[in-house]
Amino acid sequence: MIEFKQVEKKYANGTTALKNINLSIEQGEFVAIIGLSGAGKSTLIRCINRMHEITGGQLHVDGVDVGKLKGSQVRRFRRRIGMIFQSFNLVTRTSVIKNVLVSFVPDLPLWRKLTGIFRKDHKIKALEALDKVGILDKAYVRVDQLSGGQQQRVALARTLAQNPDIILADEPIASLDPVTSRMVMDDFKRINREMNISVIMNIHHVEVALEYADRIIGIRQGEVVFDGKSSGVTTAVLGEIYGGRFEEEMSVLTEAGIAYV
Ligand SMILES: Nc1ncnc2c1ncn2[C@@H]1O[C@H](COP(=O)(O)OP(=O)(O)OP(=O)(O)O)[C@@H](O)[C@H]1O
After folding, report:
1. How many whole angstroms from 17 Cα to the centroid of ligand 1?
2. Which of 35, 83, 148, 177: disulfide with 39, CB 3.0–4.6 Å?
3. Ranges for the ABC transporter domain (predicted)?
């Protein structure tokens, strides 16, 4: 369970990105965080694995007080939390399987790190992870020969090989076309359902968020202004989250055939 208690995040330049955040996210939930650019979505996600340190309140992940972790404890803690970025963060000039095997590097003795010779069980796990996202046949292809959607699936496989409890995804479909986006979202959904991995996703596409996530957290100027089921997101709620600029979002919803009161 992830618990935010009166969490605040103030950056060194004085910007308050998060104010009085109180949230409780159960294991296995699929949560989408929506809001305008600059609302604090990325900051919120990145506080969970301590990429950003909170400056007020408390943040617990499965009972662990994240703010109190030190040195190697932070590294061990992060092993349980996968992170997916908009830009994939892959080594594009090498093979798919090597990119997935990277997730085992922290567990290896120095000689294996230096020689790049991986254990057989790690190779099997890497291949299994690739199979889970449907790109096993690409294992020995160079990453720069793959499409954007396939590259995001490699990133997802790398995260899965790490055997995480939680996957944080920061705009994972922002650079993908609509069809590929849905394929990647289908992967997230399947992984969430079949493996009971919590997915916390920061996403700009409201219609996709409503279709795939079970729960929506709407953020405005660093504060949670909506927290509830996707089915409870009405035009009034979108107005609250996006202020005067929700009409653009509404037109997307109408095109997607989603009716709102
Ligand atoms: N490293 C930083 N130093 C100072 N201010 C920052 C830093 N990172 C983000 N901010 C500020 O914190 C606020 C929240 O930013 P954040 O990136 O979390 O928003 P966001 O909702 O994810 O936006 P976007 O959708 O554009 O990615 C913004 O005002 C931003 O300018």
Report:
1. 7
2. 35
3. 2-246
Query: Is the distance from the beta carbon of residue 53 to the nearest atom of ligand 1 less than 6 Å?
Result: no
Instruction: Tell me which of 146, 163, 180 is where a domain ends.
Output: 163
Q: Tell me the C-alpha distance between 144 and 131, whole Å.
A: 19
In this structure, the residue with its CA closest to atom 28 of ligand 1 is 38
Measured in Å, residue 37 CA sits from the centre of ligand 1 at 8
- Could you tell me the CATH number of the domain that includes residue 13? 3.40.50.300
Query: Are residues 261 and 170 both part of a single domain?
Result: yes
List beta partners, residue 18. 9
235-251 pLDDT, tens digit per residue, is 999 999 998 666 665 55
CA of 55 to the centre of ligand 1 (A): 15
Determine whether the shortest distance from the Cβ of 47 to ligand 1 is under 6 A. no
First-to-final CA distance of the chain: 33
How far is residue 227's CA from residue 92's CA, in Å, rounded to a whole number? 38
Same domain for 239 and 185:
yes
pLDDT in tens, 194-231: 999 999 999 999 999 999 999 999 999 999 999 999 99
What is the edge-to-edge ordering of all strands in the sheet holding 64-65?
16-25, 2-10, 56-61, 64-65
Position 88, amino acid: F
Confidence of residue 71 (pLDDT cuts 50, 70, 90): confident
Do 106 and 186 share a structural domain? Answer: no
The verdict on 179 and 249 lying in the same domain is: yes
Measured from the Cα of 16, ligand 1's closest atom is 12
Domain count for the chain? 2
Q: Is 40 in the pocket of ligand 1 (CB under 6 A)?
A: yes
Name the region of 176 (left: φ>0; alpha: ψ -120 to 50; beta: rest). beta
Looking at residue 84, what is its pLDDT? 94
Question: What is the residue range of 254's domain?
Answer: 1-80+166-261
From 145, 163, 181, give the residue that closes a domain: 163
Mean pLDDT along residues 78-104: 90
